[in-house]
Amino acid sequence: MANENDKKDEEKDPMDNVRFKEGKHFGQWTIEKTLDEGGFGQVYLVKTKDGKRAALKAESNDVEGGSAIKLEQMILKKLNKNGPVPHVPELFASAKRKKYCYMIMTLLGENLKSLKAKQKKERFTRGTWSRVGIQCLYALKYMHDCGFVHRDIKPQNFMLGNEEDKERARIVHVLDFGLARQFAKYSEDTKKWSARRARGTAEFRGTLRYTSPNVCMRMEQGRVDDVWSLLFVLIELNGGLPWQTVQKREEVEAMKITMPDRDVMLNMPTCMGGVIPHLRTLHYYTRPDYHLIFKALWQVMLNEGQTPRSRFDWETKNPDPSIAPSDWENPDGRYFKLDEIGINGPPPTGKDAGESTHADADALKSDKGKSLNTKRKSEMKKI
């Protein structure tokens, strides 16, 4: 009998731990209905007695590797440490129970993938994706300035605010931090930020279609790799990626590493032409020129005769004029010029720096001004 019981336990669906009935309470929050179901988690609409609505995300503890919610809620707390910020969901509550973990956060709307699927020819107009891109870039820069890289940038992980939330309805939010990693730490002693040392090689993390060439070469992901992924997202929103229909991992990775920039950017506006050459100059430690990318996207918007307050492709009404302009709408892009952490190189060397110190320094040296990224490209052409 004991063996039969063990077998039943093994066959039990871990999703059973996170299927909750309507009316279940989580503190002041009550479940109203299910919003989404994933591989081993559920998302619910929850509500307080005074009518405040939010999203509850629950994941089972009975899965290999455990729940990613612990990491997600930690990062959300860090990102919202000084209060609610634009482009990032707010965390209202989180806890771990015997069979599951959960967190309650800002209720958002549709993601970019589902919005794109509803558009004519399943693409956004340039006037829309350029403004979406500026907001996504804002979200990434904010996350980077808090010391984290996302490592899974894709259309599904950017969501508009809920349509009933006037303040956030037109704001693009970054979410799903289950693969995120801290790349920089702040010292209370020195009052300065320092980079976390890059590993010599790193396992693949992310979604193949959008990962950077560096990830294809199993290199440590830094800020530049999130920006690479965002560029690939925008190319897809514009009509499609060169490897859109390629199924084999080896072929996709080879295309990313060897394909000429002009072919990757074939159908993109010419004013975006400087983005990839800039990204190729960067390595794990260096800061992307967010303002350069902002200016390129802003120019796309202007070329299309759009303003930040123009309708997005999915909108049927003009924006509410009573809502104050968001920070991303500032034409001088001052936010993108700010360097909050001042990291452009490896951490200081010292006795505790480890054996990789000299290797890091050598790897970052350049005989002819080439980046680590470019130097390894030729080595990987055999793929």
TrEMBL record:
Q: Which InterPro entries match?
A: CK1_Ser-Thr_kinase, Kinase-like_dom_sf, Prot_kinase_dom, Ser/Thr_kinase_AS
Q: Which SUPFAM superfamilies match?
A: Protein kinase-like (PK-like)
Reported EC number(s) for this entry are 2.7.11.1
Molecular function terms in GO for this entry? ATP binding; protein serine/threonine kinase activity
Classification via Gene3D superfamilies: Transferase(Phosphotransferase) domain 1
What's a GO cellular component annotated to this UniProt protein? microtubule cytoskeleton
Report keywords, A-Z: ATP-binding, Kinase, Nucleotide-binding, Serine/threonine-protein kinase, Transferase
Region of interest (Disordered), ranges: 1-20, 310-383
Instruction: Give TM regions.
Output: none
Its EC top class is transferase
What region holds the Protein kinase domain?
Answer: 29-302
> Composition bias, kind Basic and acidic residues: at what positions?
331-340, 352-383
Describe the family membership recorded for this protein in Swiss-Prot or TrEMBL. Belongs to the protein kinase superfamily. CK1 Ser/Thr protein kinase family.
This chain's protein is named: non-specific serine/threonine protein kinase
Q: What is the lineage of its organism?
A: Eukaryota, Metazoa, Ecdysozoa, Nematoda, Chromadorea
